[in-house]
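Revision sheet: structure tokens.
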Amino acid sequence: MAQRNTSVEVSIVIPSRYPSERLRQCLGSLIEQTFAAKCPQVIVVDDGSGGDYGPISDGLPLAVEIVYRNARGGAGAARNSGARASTAEFIVFLDDDCLVPPGWLEAIRSFMESHRECALAGGNLRPISPENWWSQSAQDYILRPAIINEQVHVVTAHAWVRRAPFVTMGGFDERFADASGEDWDLSRRMSAAGLEVLEASDIWCYHAHPTSASQFFERARRYGRWSVLLPEAGNDLDQSQGRRRPSAVRAVRAPLGQVRYYVACYSQLRGTDVARMRAIRSTGMYALFSAVFHRTQRKYRRLQVSE
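Predicted:
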């Protein structure tokens, strides 16, 4: 890790596969932030492309540090590289396809100051326009902090940590090479170590949610492929999605149990401000997502056994 710099309160780490227009827009949204105290350190980590970020970062009224990785290692490895280059007590992880609203960073600072025992926290994600059935289902069930057996699991596309416990836990597990499960694994390990992991539901940013069937189910396959690295693989997806759900592991083993489980999911979603037709659509699409997830997971479990 870089030496602590007391002139910086917050380091923002943004992993990026290559220079892109969406990264430029992400950095542009940071310009709109107001800072009650010291300006943040902004670090963009290039995950092995070796691209030129000058056209993206030059001319911005915001100092941007570029950290290059020699080879692609995935979002978790890139975040670790950014954390090692950071100098602040608080490290904010933000994906390059996110846009943050005014007041976002001040809200994070206030949250961490009022929760001094919190080691890791995650905010909510709202879909960037256009919003459609696919992005709505992702928002309602997939891309949001989850509560599993009373433990919060954050989505590190939009999350923040305290430096000391993050370093102690060894950062992200870099075996998760494709932005699928490294955040759940970090949440699990921190909770198991007795560290406080919280959901900050009132702090949100915009994110490029899936807007097509191919994007939606590709995410399900990716999650299923990498979930086999989790000790509780197979238990997570169906117990999660941001609200306390009935135990799903037993429920999904029989068709009737599946129906009861997804009816319970629908009922809990309707308990929020989600309209009836949207809740029906989102729950049905979540059931399809789960089916693809579990089919992919079974495939990679068999491959593990055969090896």
